[in-house]
Amino acid sequence: MAKKQKTFRPKARVPRGFRDRLGAEIVAEREMLARISAVYESHGFDPLETPAFEFTDALGKFLPDVDRPNQGVFSIQDDDQQWMSLRYDLTAPLARYVAENYDGLPKPFRRYQVGPVWRNEKPGPGRFRQFTQCDADTVGAPAPYADAEMCAMFCDVIEAAGIQKGDYFVRISNRKIVDGLFEKIGLDGDESAEMRMTVMRSMDKFDRLGDQGVSLLLGKGRKDDSGDFTDGANLDPANIEAVLSFLNSGQADDPLGAIAQILGDTKSGEAGLDELTGIKNAIPDFDSRSIIFDCSVIRGLEYYTGPVFEAELTSTIEDAKGRPVQIGSVGGGGRYDGLVKRFKGVEVPAVGFSVGVSRLLAALELQQGAKANPAGPVIVLALEKDQMASYQTMAAELRIAGIRSEVYLGGSNFAKQLKYADKRTAPVAIIQGEDERQKNEITIKDLVLGSELSKKIEDNTEWREEQPAQFSVPRANLVEAVKSTLARRR
Hints:
Strand content: 15-25%
Number of helices: 17
Mean pLDDT: 88
Shape: elongated
Strand order of the largest sheet: 1-5-6-15-14-11-7-10
Helix content: 25-40%
CATH superfamily of the largest domain: Bira Bifunctional Protein, Domain 2
Low-confidence stretches: 62-68
Number of domains: 3
Main location: cytoplasm
Largest sheet: 8 strands, mixed
Distance between the termini: 68 Å
Subunit structure: Homodimer.
Keywords: Aminoacyl-tRNA synthetase, ATP-binding, Cytoplasm, Ligase, Nucleotide-binding, Protein biosynthesis
Family: Belongs to the class-II aminoacyl-tRNA synthetase family.
GO molecular function: histidine-tRNA ligase activity
CATH architecture of the largest domain: 2-Layer Sandwich
């Protein structure tokens, strides 16, 4: 007897670093992104949508230098042997789009884009391989006025998302003033490129390690709490002091004046200070904005060419157990005048920022508490198969009135239909069986009130007699009765 072949059944699972999402989180994100998009559009930015895939050589940061270019990106080879990759961010596709359509675009070109991006990196807690970015960029406008607009709009976006003024700061620095610092301490030559990166990595830890920790990293090195030792930059004491003064300049009453005093008459420093001064002067309500100058903004400076900015929450946020949670940066950006040059061969000025959608949502959830699942649709129960058209008519009337509704289509069992309504978090169920139909009535069942009262009423007889969450109305009063019932829930 032939052995029966086993049927292959794939295991239902999500790839590592990816996740399914349902319900309240999606609704909260969609609502927040709608508010942010409204800010962008109010400033005259147009939406842009680019493909999920770009040719890999267009991404810039990850060029194919091996048989399969999969370092950092997810790549496939097309049937014409060209490599394509899922976009790593929304900026590289923007640069490609501008270069491809340059002659026909208005300059400056102002666009915003919302969409998923993919990174082929090691996943971890809260770190996924697919996530949403929300960017705004101006291409074709030099510093500092476009940068000033971006900083002001960044504040508007953070507040539109739900973060209150005073609970965040947009911190501004400039790649050029960092270059001025390196001129000041003698690290501006090509031969010092590696040393500059070591110093910048040390400076980037200022918010976490403070003066003492950064001083050690700029000097001989530092041993952390685990006992691991990090070699230092071996700067002399005078240069270490200059770097620390630079990082602390944001605490001065006049930060720009303090920076100027530190940098002296360095060429790059002077150019950077002129741009920062221009940003301040171009924002009419600068002093009332949550904007500060902070030279400790270092991350990404090898990419940016001028002003850089980062939004960071300042208020203390606690989790459900009262423990402090460090959210950190919720977005950032800056000027990147060299990106389109890869395609065009000429420098095209550009500035923009990206909102940290997931971090903003996490912060709002911690501040406001986790939201319950959003209310589901009104459910019209289908108790009689031959009355399905009538039930669909009821649902259509509710939809015309702006009420989300559906007809149950899974069978005529009454208990199962109510169980379904409960799982859908439906606020109301509409019931019309044979008895109601003969009276030309419908029964409105307030499922939310019913759930609340069921926790209080212990006597089944009392519950059956009173039925406080259930009442009947003429069929013609369907919409009015549902509206009034829903109004009690708001």
